[in-house]
Structures are given as structure tokens and as C-alpha cells.
Design a protein that fits this description.
78% helix
Length: 145
């Protein structure tokens, strides 16, 4: 039997799970907002204890990265992402999750050929193109502004 693209599309739509986009969008928005609120609470607490603005930002980032990595290690971040979707892609925690997940998945292959070689499999392109974009924007800023 020859399956045409139209037949395949109909079969795929019939067997694909239905998704409620409105609820998914609201859930992602709420969870992303809660992650950002947690970051703000951490920053406010650090500021209350006498840290200056630069230190607050640095320590807040460090704490969020560590919390995200720990949650990834225990499998909690994936459970949250299953229900919250894009809400867990808040840049710093999502990046930490991507790096931690790659390290955990490749840990059975050893530290050098496993973790060391594959830790940036997902996050590598983000680092590469982020640095390249920053360089280009820096040149534009330097020469034209």
C-alpha cells in the first residue's frame, strides 16, 4: 500500500494527542513568572543582607543555576517541564537544565569522553551564536553609535 502525504497527515492527526493551547500558554506564563519571581525574591533577600546590585545579580544567577541543576539531577525539572512547557525555558534555569541533562545522560561514558565531550551538546550552539551575536552587536555599537 502506498501512503500519500495527505493520507499520512490524516493518520498523524488522528493519532496525535490533542493539546489545549490556551491552558498550555497560561501554564507556561505562570510557571515562567514564578521562576522569575523566585529570582527576584533571592535578589531582594541578598540586597536586604547588604549585597550591592552587582553582587545581587551575580549571586542570584549562581543560586538559580545551582537550584536548576539540583532539580534536574533529581528529575524534578523534567516533571515540571512536562506540565509547564516553555515556562521552564526561562533563560538561566533552562540553560542550566540543558547543560545538566547532557552531563547526566552521558555520565555512563566516563568523565572525559562522556561528560566532558557531550556536556555542551545542547547548550553549545547557544553559547556559540550568543557570543557571535554579542561580537557583531559590539562592533555595530563601537563603529556606529
Amino acid at each position: 500500500m502506498h501512503i500519500t502525504p495527505e493520507m499520512y497527515k490524516k493518520m498523524s492527526e488522528k493519532h496525535s494527542p490533542k493539546s489545549n493551547h490556551k491552558i498550555n500558554i497560561v501554564t507556561a506564563f505562570v510557571v515562567g513568572g514564578l521562576i522569575c519571581t523566585l529570582g527576584q525574591l533571592i535578589a531582594s533577600a541578598l540586597e536586604f543582607y547588604g549585597f550591592d546590585e552587582t553582587e545581587c545579580g551575580a549571586w542570584t544567577s549562581i543560586i538559580l543555576v545551582v537550584l536548576s541543576s539540583v532539580c534536574t539531577g533529581f528529575g524534578w525539572y523534567q516533571k515540571l517541564a512536562k506540565h509547564a512547557g516553555a515556562g521552564t525555558l526561562v533563560p538561566i534555569t533552562g540553560f542550566s537544565n540543558a547543560v545538566s541533562s547532557s552531563a547526566i545522560e552521558s555520565s555512563s561514558e566516563g568523565f572525559v569522553l562522556g561528560v566532558g565531550a557531550k556536556i555542551f551538546t545542547i547548550a553549545g550552539p547557544v553559547i556559540l551564536y550568543g557570543c557571535a551575536a554579542a561580537f557583531v552587536y559590539g562592533l555595530i555599537l563601537y563603529f556606529f553609535v
